Amino acid sequence: MSEGNKDVAIIVLQYSVVVKGIERKLNEAGYQTSVIEDDHARIEEFSRSSDIFLFYLPGDVTNKLLMLEKVSHVCENVKECRKNMILIGEPKDRQELTLKAPVVSEFAWLDRPVEINVLEHAIENVIAGKNINPGKKNILIVDDDPSYAKMIREWIKGDYQTNIVTAGMQAITFLLKNHVDLILLDYEMPVVDGPQVLQMLRQEPATAKIPVIFLTGVGTKEAVERVMQLRPNGYILKTTSRDDLLKYLHGKLG
Predict the structure, then answer these.
(1) Is 162 in a helix, a strand, or coil?
(2) Is the Cβ–Cβ distance between 183 and 212 less than 8 Å?
(3) Other C-beta atoms within 10 Å of 232: how many?
(4) Which of 182, 189, 183, 197 is CA-nearest to residue 166?
(5) Tell me, what's the pLDDT at 2?
(6) Looking at residue 128, what is its pLDDT?
(7) 3-state SS class at 51
(8) Coil, strand or helix: which one is 170?
(9) Are 238 and 229 in contact (CB under 8 A)?
(10) What is the 3-state secondary structure (H, E, C) of 19-88?
């Protein structure tokens, strides 16, 4: 629950049902909200009364030049107003958007879809001067079971930036275009299995040094021996608990 009726200005390039839902939930949580819809001149006006800005980014922002320019302009305006802001966008867009519009890196970021309790906690932390994602490491989860992959993302998203792919070749394609700090790799996958993915990664100079940890339900002696010949950075069974997984990852990445 918000204390002291904090004022939140929500910036959008296009109003949507999702934004309306965020606005409603923040109001219910005790915040005073205002929406700035593609009218950047009003940012300075609202900066005098708002405690924080939320910028709800459109989809595929990095593939649309005009939209990218608008995002950069909004961030520059907020920066000039010396106000805090949280950007809410697609996980896949964050790294590329930061490269194309470096000013984005100066603000906090939340992946969407974002739960209202997570957003409220982030707002309070940013207002209090706490960085909600200070250089979070990026982990790629590779698993052909999307339900399990999403569960792992929920377990670790508070500590790490996460992306999910559900096939071995998708992982290769993703990694040739995106930086990650660690890979959680399933063993048994159709077409290209985990050991084959690891072998291909080790053969590519761009991916050879990325730490790879198997997170798998396969624990037979033969499977482990096959993998260990490829020198992975770890081997964890899917029976591990959330706390043990986080402890293990903290030991690898901090």
Answers:
(1) strand
(2) yes
(3) 18
(4) 189
(5) 46
(6) 80
(7) coil
(8) helix
(9) no
(10) HHHHHHHHHHCCCEEEEEECCCCHHHHHHCCCCEEEEECCCCHHHCHHHHHHHHHHHHHHHHCCCCEEEE
**Mind listing the pLDDT tens digit for each residue in 36-83?**
987 777 888 898 889 999 999 988 888 888 888 889 999 998 988 888
CA 197, distance to chain mean position in Å, is: 23
Q: Report how far residue 90's alpha carbon sits from residue 92's, in angstroms, rounded to the nearest whole number.
A: 5
pLDDT, tens only, 228-251: 888 899 999 999 999 999 999 999
Give me the amino acid identity at 116.
Answer: I
Question: In this structure, are 37 and 61 located in the same domain?
Answer: yes
* Domains in the chain, number: 2
Are residue 14 and residue 122 in the same domain, yes or no? yes
CA 3 to CA 29: how far, in whole Å?
A: 9
The token pair that represents 14 in the structure block: 């296009």
Mean of pLDDT over the chain: 87
Q: Are 89 and 112 a contacting pair, CB within 8 Å? A: yes
Q: Tens digits of per-residue pLDDT, 187-233?
A: 989 999 999 999 999 998 888 889 999 998 887 888 788 888 888 99
Query: Which helix H or strand E contains 52, and what residues bound it?
Result: strand 52-56
Q: Which domain holds residue 244?
A: 138-253
d(CA 88, CA 107): 11
